[in-house]
Amino acid sequence: MARYRFSEFVLSPRRRVLVRDGREQPLIPRYFDLLVFLVEHRHEAVHRRDIFDRVWSDVVVSDSALSQAIRTIRRTLDDDSREPRFIRTVSRHGYRFVFDGVVEEDDEQAWPAADVTTPPEPAPALSAAPVPPPDRFEPLLARLTRVPASAADNEDQREAAELLHGLGIAETLTRLGTRPRHAYARALLRDARWDTPAAGDVPVLAAPSPAATAWHLTALRLRRAARIAAARWAGAALGGGVAGAFGGAAGGVLLAAAPTSTASFAVVPVLAVVGAACGAAGGAGVGAGLSVAEATFRSRRTLGLVAGGALGGGLVGLVAEWLSRWTLAALVGVHLDVGGGIEGLAIGAAAGLGYAAATAFAEGGLAAPRGWRRAATAAVVGFACAAATLALALSGRALVGGTVHLIATTSQGSQVVLTPLGRLIGEPGFGPVSAAILGLGEGLLFGAGLAFGLTRRPR
What we know:
The protein is α+β, with helices and mostly antiparallel strands. It has three domains: about 1-105, Arc Repressor Mutant, subunit A (Orthogonal Bundle), CATH 1.10.10; about 135-210, no CATH class; about 225-455, no CATH class. Helices cover about 60% and strands about 5% of the residues. The chain is built from 15 helices and ten strands. Helix 7 crosses helix 8 (about 210-255) and helix 8 (about 210-255) runs antiparallel to helix 9 (about 265-295). The longest helix has about 50 residues, at about 210-255.
């Protein structure tokens, strides 16, 4: 593989290093890949979409993530966006590497030695008083703690946080203390450490005002990923709805075709609509919880996803439980012990656990696997949800099919009594084995549909 020499820099894709005058310049992996991509395509302006597809191919990130990456690379190269030597912004398109003197050379050649020579220090003037070194921390801390007035101010504060990580985070936190807006500053320092090479840890729980710091950190991350999280929430709802419609229609066909059933094929669209509504509602709740958790939790991603999925599923389940009981009692005078809250909590937690395990590779954004990885993610989440629904069914808790059967048995003339399905597998009625098999299928379909919708990559 070739390496690239430009100005005083040497870029080696094979060794994954950027060297300046013999000294390595640290860059996080995705920023290094971006620099290599720009240098390789230096004869053209690279579109932002192509950059996202190449550098962030397995995750979805906001547009500000690319702007931040370019800013960090420019700072590493001592480049200026107003008079660029290396990277120029192409308005409404993307970026271009504009340095003319790039030389490709064999990476097996010897590397230049580090320039360790230092110029001799001038003799101090006898009459001059010693000049104290400038304080490099205080101007950056002042930028970090002021109230931002625009998006440009927000980016300026983030750059200040990255520079403070380079100076030393321990000294930064000591000097920050409890001055005004210190909680916001700590949150920004905590978030910026993921994009700064060799950045130190910024504790939240052990810091002053941990609740305020956690609140600011959550708001920062949600603000940067709000549009993406909203799109993923909608995708999860659509995926859950499609899976529910398919499951309901398949159950209706089996019920109508059962030898002892009195149901007609008219139940197929009815059960498809019921399944679609339940799947879409569950997908919306669990998907929203997973999207928010993935956007806000980075150091404890698995715990955040499990908690987010459980909270979203539990809230939707509670609402569905209350609406079902109220509707049945008000419209037809039927009082049934319909579940929802516990079921949603368990299924949401299982979906979060399966999703966290299947997308553990994702760093720096919201997971968006492609090809077989996406299919594998859907399978893992589907089996995780299936395990949860099986456990719920075996414990006697009714899921969608069981609830439909329960309502049908208390209503006269209903065609959706599921007793014929139980007889197909040898039970005298819709018993525990039938409920377990039906619950297993519901969980598998819902989890797979949820994962497919959640991981859809926006165009």
